[in-house]
Amino acid sequence: MQSSFEAILENRRDEISSRMRGTLLGLYGDWLWVDERIKAISSEIEEISRTEENSANVMTIPGIGPLISTAIVAAIGKGEVFDKGRDFAAWLGLVPRQFSTGGRTILGRISKRGNSYLRMLLVQAANVILMRPHRWDSIGLGPWLRGVVSRMPHNKAAVALANKLARTAWSVLRHGTTYKVTGDEALGAI
């Protein structure tokens, strides 16, 4: 059976040389193989995230799915390397750079040091959460997020939320628990 791509090439036979047609068909085959490989690896990651207890616990945090949970667990295990969630967030580069002089502290941009892959994933998760303000209360972030969004630009709010997600993930891993919404202050103490 002829694929739609092959049908397109067949219709353009007068415009495309046979050598180019062979090259395009080869590249199309490569693309299909890579697509199947991505599906297989994605299925494997989803299976690991469901069966591995720490990954499953981290996935209970809003915005965190199989890819982020397995990446966090692969990077820090149970979080024993860090004394606090704040240390984990700093390791990811999700904290502002500090400049201090004469007892006066000036906070700058985020440091962007540390694990850039995990930082990117957590910021993307934060952006997804920020796009759905109608769900903020149901995931226990309503009052905190409304306050953050009202006083800072979108990207800063996303980084602040990513910081909070990282700290929550550390807490879930360190204590071997799951994320639970216990009211409006669900993430306030973390």
Give a description of the structure:
With 190 residues, the protein is mainly alpha-helical. It has 2 domains: 4-45, no CATH class; 53-175, no CATH class. Helix content is 60%, strand content 7%. The chain is built from 8 helices and 2 strands; from the N terminus they run H-H-H-H-H-E-E-H-H-H. The protein has helices at residues 4-11, 18-51, 53-58, 66-76, 85-92, 116-130, 142-151, 154-175, and strands at 96-101, 104-110. Strands 1-2 form a two-stranded antiparallel sheet. A hairpin with a 2-residue loop joins strand 1 (96-101) and strand 2. Helix 2 packs across helix 4 (66-76), helix 5 crosses helix 8 (154-175) and helix 6 packs across helix 8. It is elongated and about 75 Å long. Residues 184-190 have low confidence and may be disordered.
Assembly classification: single chain
Shape: elongated
Computed over alpha carbons, the radius of gyration is 23 Å
In total, the number of strands is 2
Write the element-wise H/E pattern from the N-terminal end onward: HHHHHEEHHH
Strand percentage lies at 5-15%
